């Protein structure tokens, strides 16, 4: 008899369920791919490579080399919304240590991890499973911990060494994120100082999310995360070598296969707002598998919580239309995180009709 009852418990971590090996199938509320909106066929996938950005040429190249990278970045943001960053300044040692630290966190007992369960979306440390267990009808094969690291730094007390590794990793990714934002402003032909002041980038909101996707007995039916866009300006993604990210491009899905020692970066919702819709916050999702544990570490860089986000006036004037109304970032974040995730439905709140 299949032990399915525990799987319906909203506070039961996916890792513990997977480790128990007490079941061979998953209950119907985990059947994400039986949702008609998520049904996939082989022809729904494409074989293309996302653009690659050489970070070293952005910060240390000649004027001509930088100009070429900026042009390439413009194309990547406009046509893809995703790109891969190589030759960055983040040590491989630190990338490995951050993944190892999150793995140790998820390997703690349920009692230790449950200390960080909290229903408020703006709580600085929040552990949970699935996505939004209070709103979602379909559950997802994922455990997570979300940690606010800027403008105030927070960290779980355990495991040992986690705080120091997180602090160093947050500083490195924040520095890289700010450099990428400057380059993106430049690609829009905007004054970087104006945007930094408008969004209070010096006090930017930065959150680091550890995602844990253990083996699933029926990966053909489940998802780690459904199609969604991210709430910040951009997201910097590190993975443990087990691929599972899928990006929607030209109405088809692309399996992302990152180069060694690289990061995947995507444009997020606030960038679409600031750019007046020129750069799109693209749908992406996480698949699971039946053999290996996939882990990812997502660093989300956003405006200050207090910032009123609106399209840059220069772009509105050039485009001859206003695509979005203004909205305080904190309000946008609370709306996006507190409700059932329905792809890009959050834009209904700010879209000019």
Mean pLDDT across residues: 88
Indicate the CATH topology. Jelly Rolls
CATH H level: which superfamily? B-lactam Antibiotic, Isopenicillin N Synthase, Chain
Q: What is the helix fraction of residues, given as a range?
A: 25-40%
CATH architecture: Sandwich
Given helix and strand content, the structural type is alpha+beta
Question: What is the string of SSEs from the N terminus onward?
Answer: HEEHHEHHEEHHEEEEEEHEEEHEH
Q: How many distinct folded domains?
A: 1
CATH class: Mainly Beta
Main sheet specs: 8 strands, mixed
Radius of gyration: 20 Å
Tally of DSSP β-strands: 15
Return residue spans where pLDDT drops below 50 for at least 5 consecutive residues: 1-10
The helix count comes to 10
For the record, give the distance between the C-alpha atoms at the N and C termini, rounded to a whole number: 54 Å
Order of strands in the sheet with the most strands?
Answer: 2-3-11-8-13-6-5-4
Approximate shape = globular
Work out the strand percent.
Answer: 15-25%
């Amino acid at each position: 008899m299949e032990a399915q009852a525990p799987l319906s418990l909203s506070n039961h971590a996916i890792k513990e369920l997977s480790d128990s090996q007490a079941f061979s199938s998953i209950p119907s509320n985990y059947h994400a791919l039986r949702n008609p909106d998520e049904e996939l066929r082989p022809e729904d996938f494409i074989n293309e490579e996302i653009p690659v950005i050489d970070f070293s040429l952005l910060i240390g190249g000649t004027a001509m080399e930088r100009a070429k990278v900026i042009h390439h970045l413009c194309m990547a943001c406009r046509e893809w919304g995703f790109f891969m960053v190589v030759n960055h300044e983040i040590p491989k040692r630190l990338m490995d240590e951050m993944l190892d630290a999150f793995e140790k966190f998820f390997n703690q007992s349920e009692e230790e991890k449950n200390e960080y369960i909290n229903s408020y979306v703006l709580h600085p440390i929040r552990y949970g499973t699935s996505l939004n267990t209070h709103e979602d009808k379909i559950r997802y094969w994922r455990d997570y911990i979300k940690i606010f690291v800027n403008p105030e730094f927070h960290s779980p007390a355990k495991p040992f060494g986690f705080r120091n590794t997180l602090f160093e990793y947050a500083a490195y990714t924040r520095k890289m994120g700010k450099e990428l934002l400057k380059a993106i402003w430049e690609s829009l032909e905007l004054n970087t100082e104006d945007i930094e002041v408008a969004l209070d980038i010096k006090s930017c909101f930065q959150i680091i999310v550890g995602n844990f996707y253990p083996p699933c007995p029926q990966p053909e039916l489940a998802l780690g995360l459904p199609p969604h866009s991210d709430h910040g300006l951009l997201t910097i993604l590190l993975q443990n070598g087990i691929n599972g990210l899928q990006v929607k491009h030209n109405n088809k899905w692309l399996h992302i296969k990152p180069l060694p020692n690289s990061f995947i970066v995507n444009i997020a919702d606030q960038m679409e707002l600031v750019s007046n819709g020129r750069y799109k916050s693209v749908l992406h999702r996480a698949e699971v598998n039946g053999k290996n544990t996939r882990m990812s570490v997502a660093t989300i860089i956003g405006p200050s919580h207090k910032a009123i986000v609106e399209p840059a006036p220069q772009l509105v004037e050039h485009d001859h239309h206003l695509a979005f109304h203004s909205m305080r970032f904190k309000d946008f974040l609370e709306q996006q995180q507190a409700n059932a995730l329905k792809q890009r439905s959050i834009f209904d709140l700010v879209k000019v009709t």
